[in-house]
Amino acid sequence: MTKKVVWITGASTGIGREIAKTFAKAGNIVVVSARRKSRLVSLVSEIKFAEREAVAFVCDVSSERSVMNTAKRIKEKFGTIDCLINNAGVTVFKSFLDTKIVDYDYVMDINLRGSFMCMKSVLPIMLKKNSGHIINILSVAANTIFENSSVYSASKSGLLSMSNSLRLELRGKNIKVTNIFPGAVETPIWDSKTRQKYKNRMLSPIDIANSALYTFNQPKKVLIEDIIIRPIKGDIV
Ligand SMILES: NC(=O)c1ccc[n+]([C@@H]2O[C@H](COP(=O)([O-])OP(=O)(O)OC[C@H]3O[C@@H](n4cnc5c(N)ncnc54)[C@H](OP(=O)(O)O)[C@@H]3O)[C@@H](O)[C@H]2O)c1
After folding, report:
1. Which domains are assigned to the chain?
2. Against a cut of 0.90, is the pTM above it?
């Protein structure tokens, strides 16, 4: 069987890093991207040491040029992109009143506009070969209300609506769109105090990575549309 080419954005730490290792271990060629090159280089070394395939490209998802250029480089190197995992994301935990316009732009540019551009960059390739899979890492915040998360929630529910609409447009074209909604996962997105306090209760990045791989490995005619994964004790706030 030919190996699948899987592009994971925001793979330098946390969930994205674990998704990369899990997909590589399963025999896929992983393309890891993020802004911090040194972290990507160490991830690629780790994957190659385990005799699996990985390539790193520095890519800032808030830059149209960077996103389009990365998709082009992947296509040039491997001839295709089978799966995009839209994972790059940031948050700002502030009350609505404290949230500045610069905070809004920062979160929206990466979580919503960045994911939009990544999807746009791979779709011509997927449409041409009449197959593909886009997996969006959303959050339970897309459809659960939390205080001090207004812009983050808006970015994730915006991406949810966008993905659901795109999924309908892609029906009949053999391109799948899956949304994964994680609850709290122990990663650097949380400040050290919160991580320390809740680390025993939070999910681990591998829990999300295993779910992403499960959706990807389904038969051609099967589309898992949504997966909600929470810690057994529920949300932390
Ligand atoms: N941890 C949780 O509790 C949780 C729960 C639900 C959903 N999520 C979602 O899961 C995803 C991954 O988050 P995480 O928890 O793993 O956090 P993380 O460890 O902070 O990882 C975030 C990743 O996004 C990348 N990133 C940030 N800005 C970027 C940009 N402009 N361009 C490209 N990459 C960028 C970061 O890499 P660089 O800084 O090197 O660019 C990093 O690799 C996010 O979408 C987050 O919203 C997390």
Report:
1. 5-229 (3.40.50.720)
2. yes
